[in-house]
Amino acid sequence: MNRRKFVRAAGTGAAVAAASTVAAPAIAQSLPEIKWRLASSFPKSLDTIFGAGETMAKVLAEATDNKFQIRVFAAGEIVPGLQVADAVQNGTVECGHTAAYYYVGKDPTFAFDTAVPFGLNARQQDAWMLHGGGRELMNEFFKEYSIHAVPCGNTGAQMGGWFRKEIKTVEDLKGVKMRIGGFAGQVMTKLGVVPQQIAGGDIYPALEKGTIDAAEWVGPYDDQKLGFNKVAPYYYYPGWWEGGPQLSAFVNINKWNELPKFYQAAFENACAKAHTWSVAKYDAQNPKALRELVASGTKLMPFPAAVMEASFNAANELYAETMAKNPKFKKVYDQWKAFRGEQVLWFRVVENTFDNFMARASAQNKL
Asked: In terms of pTM, does the model score above 0.85?
């Protein structure tokens, strides 16, 4: 390249660079400054489930050059953990981070946004939400509550909870006062359990004082932090009511519609980041926590087969009863059930086959 061509090319490159330098701030300056408050259903001590909301807010601020900021408040700082949906609906806060199944008292259809007994695992829940029509169905339902929901976290399959006494038969469940969230409490009622809806931060004192006899929360990493092993020795699995429970960011629908499209996209992307971050962190942290719990004396036990069968039958009975009187629930359930059937069939072919082989190899100390 001769000198004149080089100078022209350099000048063109400099002009492009200058234009880029000017363009970025110009775009940023054109965006409105927005500050929202987010009410979480979870205490700060649970750095993963609460942290998903913080992660979302951090990623959103970075993506918008700090023009769109969300301040995250723990359960109880603005409203109690189980009143987040109400706070979003009535505009007390612009958004919340919660588990929709906390609000089945309003309508059991809320449960599908999080988890229902003997439902989908985390990957299957994502598939239903993103490619099976789940988000569309749920946001159509949420409109009645002035809520727009965005998936924002998942714990993966959960544990079956902590019990003061050993559970050998279905009869052993009768009269047990158990903290259990969502639709699962109604299934447990059919087995004689007395369900209690208690926010995460209030479970330990209730279990310690004997106000409740058993409690389920998430899994080893969170349960160890909350100290449940100190007041209940038996740790059961699996949490058949939560195969892949999703958390959601609830946004007041009027506030959502007011957002520029760019901010809506940034919010969605920030939630997606928090979504994968949370389930990955639980998968990374749970093994170590479970080993430590068992080493400290926790009695790790599977639910007896008879309890699992009775629970499965009770769940199906409850679904039939609910569909008969709730057309909103039936609309979602019919579509969801068909999707679940296809997913379970596919996982039987390859996912479960692979996982079961690896489980046997682990049991034989080959890994």
From this structure: yes
